[in-house]
Amino acid sequence: MPTRNPKAPAMTSPPRRYPFFKGRVALHAILRAAGIGDGDQILMPGYTCVVVPNAVNYTGARPVYLDIEAATFNLDCDRLEDDAGRKWDPERTRAIIVQHTYGIPCDMDRIDTFAQKHDLLVIEDACHALGSTWRGRPVGSLGDAAFFSSQWSKPLTTGLGGWAEISNPELRRALDGILPDYTPPPAAAAWRLEMQYLAFSALDHPRLFWMIQGIYRFLGNRGLAIGSSTSGELSCELPADYRQGMHPLQQRRLRRLLQRMDRTITARRRNTALIEAALQKAGLPTVTVPDTCDPVFLRYPLLVENKTAVLAAAKRRRIQLGDWFLSPIHPNPDRWELAGYVPGTCPVAEDVCRRVINIPTGTRLSAGEIQRTVDFLAEHGIWSHP
Known about the structure:
Layout: E1 16-20, H1 23-33, E2 41-45, E3 48-49, H2 51-58, E4 62-66, E5 93-99, H3 108-118, E6 121-125, E7 133-134, E8 137-138, E9 145-149, E10 162-166, H4 169-178, H5 187-203, H6 209-221, H7 231-234, H8 248-259, H9 261-281, E11 293-294, E12 299-303, H10 307-317, E13 329-330, H11 347-355, E14 356-360, H12 367-380
Parallel strand pairs: 2-4, 2-5, 3-13, 5-6, 6-9
Antiparallel strand pairs: 1-10, 7-8, 7-11, 9-10, 12-14
């Protein structure tokens, strides 16, 4: 079984990239390659998308949810040791999944110290954070492995898709051995996804956000579009076609997008600067970012006391705002126990879910749209603080 690689932070060669049908499938493959299975425990934040603990549960292991800190939306590193023996069993725990929420890197110095002490694999959930850095080093290269997503709402989109990046040499060899289990989807499905991608690209505009989201969910629920998650996945059931690689069509697009990634990063940083300047001018709170990191925000998170009312008003006014996360097991409003989450386990995360909204930083967002969004928030938001 692959073990924690103490040299991973000092590696000079880039991690090896492995494409998959979705980011969650990349995580599943990482866990399998690590030999994780029945009886094992995996630490992770109780502020995540349901598909992440699903990948853990599908291996037979059990996710153990840890609370976050409201200021950074990332794991509360002060509580990691306090929770040992109470929430998790050091003898059974094999890995920690570290989410870089909204693009804000987690405190990887403390995560690495903790993982070394307990001999844990470090798996980065970098789905929000492509291009972000910690102490000058890119997320995805800071642990043993990382998984990324190229689904519709992520920093780069291939329609659906994702990939793993592996720094641990033992884990690379193990993953190479199971790759044949992950065959690409049929050509018909790939072309159907290609048509969806072209439609998405043509219609992707902040003013059309709510309409497109509604149409996409309507078609996805009826099997007329390839959705991000099936209804079964939202109920934590294993889809029959879960173990899939990425079709060559999407792989080619991913390579092109990664080659142009600097443009995307520049645009998102420009939009983040405009968002923060507009918020400050309006006297509204901004995110405090640790000096050790340089985030590329996928979404710019804000806390309000009237989340439901703000989102409803935004929809009426055609203002693009996000609701990540609606719950500790997003987007599920209840039945969290299906993912192994007991209500009350992560009280800070549950409170944040009731208050958090976000401003997307997408490349098609104009300065005018940003100002319009902030003006709307100044009018409708009842503001709160971490």
